[in-house]
Design brief:
It is a single chain. The protein has 100 residues and is α+β, with helices and mostly antiparallel strands. It has one domain. The protein has one helix and four strands; from the N terminus they run αββββ. A hairpin with a 2-residue loop joins strand 1 and strand 2. The chain is globular and about 40 Å long. It starts with 16 loop residues before the first helix and ends in a 34-residue tail after the last strand. The mean pLDDT is 95.
Length: 100
């Protein structure tokens, strides 16, 4: 896993859930740009996909898709938060640019 601490999340990213989500998606994309996963037989897809589109109103939007494996027992205990069941995608260190 790409390990982080609360101190590694910039204040600017923790100001809202939207900013935190954008930060995490961009960080995952930077750390794992070439990892493919098989979500269906014989069809490889990138585990992390990030891009910017311009919507029909002319507003730029950050668009992303991520595929994170879950442990096989993810549904056994409803009291366990689902994000705790996320498995390692890669082992790359968080780039310095994402900590400031």
């Amino acid at each position: 896993m790409t390990t982080i601490t609360a101190a590694s999340i910039p204040t600017s990213a923790s100001a809202s859930l939207e900013k935190l989500t954008a930060w995490a998606l961009l960080a995952m994309g930077r750390c794992n740009p070439d990892i493919d996963v098989l979500e269906e037989d014989g069809v490889a897809t990138r585990a992390v996909q990030v891009g910017i589109i311009i919507d029909s109103t002319g507003t730029p939007r950050l668009v992303g898709r991520i595929s994170i494996a879950l442990s096989a027992d993810y549904a056994e205990n409803a009291a366990t938060k689902l994000w705790v069941k996320a498995l390692e995608l890669g082992t790359v260190a968080l780039p310095t640019g994402f900590t400031t």
